[in-house]
């Protein structure tokens, strides 16, 4: 907590107010943090609060655009069973991409947002992306399905019969051919 720069008092409290900002022809209410000196009644914004407010605006815009907010993107990554580093390898965007998205320093692209949503929706999309990124698909990588975390092995076992039946059909054809 930084003190008051005018009267040097440490008796400073943090307050919050909703600010109305214009964005794409609409108005968004964004919570803005500021400080009040209880000694001289001065209101001011610390550097930390400026950064925090910038992030709040960024998140409000993303929410309006239907994109994951910083908290949601972290939740999605965890549902996919990925570390921040792995998620950057799987979805692209550079080595520190997810750490920046989750700290709300940078907004993910619309394309990135769509790809993450597809991976959450379709386990095979995530599987292909993991293979593509040379990330070992093992029991540590969970497949997100129908609001439940399904270990990859269970998912694979549930789908194995598809491959087996194709194989046996092929063998029969060969016998008769
Ligand atoms: Zn003061």
Outline the secondary-structure elements.
Blueprint: E1 12-23, E2 26-37, E3 43-44, H1 47-64, H2 70-79, H3 84-91, H4 97-102, H5 110-121, H6 123-132, E4 142-145, E5 148-151, H7 152-176
Antiparallel strand pairs: 1-2, 2-3, 4-5
Helix pairs in contact: 5-6
Radius of gyration: 24 Å
What kind of assembly state do the chains in view correspond to? single chain
Number of strands: 5
Rounded average pLDDT: 83
- The first-level CATH class of the largest domain is given as Mainly Alpha
Largest sheet, spatial ordering of strands: 1-2-3
Indicate how many domains the architecture comprises: 2
Percent range for helical residues? 40-55%
H and E order = EEEHHHHHHEEH
Strand % is 15-25%
Biggest sheet: strands, sense, closure? 3 strands, antiparallel
Cα distance, first to last residue?
Answer: 81 Å
CATH fold assignment of the largest domain: 434 Repressor (Amino-terminal Domain)
CATH architecture assignment name of the largest domain: Orthogonal Bundle
CATH superfamily of the largest domain: lambda repressor-like DNA-binding domains
Q: Helix/strand-derived class?
A: alpha+beta
Question: How many H/I helices?
Answer: 7
Q: List unreliable stretches of 5+ residues.
A: 144-148, 161-177
Shape descriptor:
elongated
Unique ligands: zinc ion
Explain how this protein is built:
The protein has 177 residues and is of the alpha+beta class. It folds into two domains: 12-64, no CATH class; 70-166, lambda repressor-like DNA-binding domains (434 Repressor (Amino-terminal Domain), Orthogonal Bundle), CATH 1.10.260. The protein is 50% helix and 19% strand. The chain has seven helices and five strands, in the order E-E-E-H-H-H-H-H-H-E-E-H. The chain has helices at residues 47-64, 70-79, 84-91, 97-102, 110-121, 123-132, 152-176; strands at residues 12-23, 26-37, 43-44, 142-145, 148-151. The strands form two sheets. Strands 1-2-3 form a three-stranded antiparallel sheet, covered by helices on one side. Strands 4-5 form a two-stranded antiparallel sheet. The longest helix is centred in the last third of the chain and has 25 residues, at 152-176. The radius of gyration is 24 Å and the shape is elongated. It starts with 11 loop residues before the first strand and ends with a helix. Zinc ion binds at residues 4, 6-7, 9, 37, 39-40, 42.
């Amino acid at each position: 907590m930084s003190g008051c720069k005018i009267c040097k008092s440490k008796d400073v409290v943090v307050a919050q107010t909703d600010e109305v900002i214009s964005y794409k022809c609409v108005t968004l209410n964004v919570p803005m943090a500021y400080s009040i000196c209880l000694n001289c009644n001065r209101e001011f914004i610390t550097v930390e609060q400026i950064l925090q407010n910038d992030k709040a605006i960024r998140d409000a815009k993303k929410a309006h655009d239907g994109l994951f907010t910083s908290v949601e993107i972290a939740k999605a990554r965890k549902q996919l069973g990925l570390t921040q580093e792995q998620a950057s390898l799987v979805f692209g965007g550079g080595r520190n991409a997810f750490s920046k998205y989750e700290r709300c320093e940078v907004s993910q692209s619309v394309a990135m947002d769509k790809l993450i949503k597809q991976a959450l929706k379709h386990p095979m999309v995530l599987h292909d992306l993991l293979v593509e990124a040379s990330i070992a698909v093992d029991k540590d990588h969970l497949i997100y399905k129908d609001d439940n975390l399904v270990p990859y092995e269970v998912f694979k076992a549930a789908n194995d019969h598809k491959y087996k039946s194709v194989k046996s059909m092929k063998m029969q054809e060969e016998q008769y051919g």
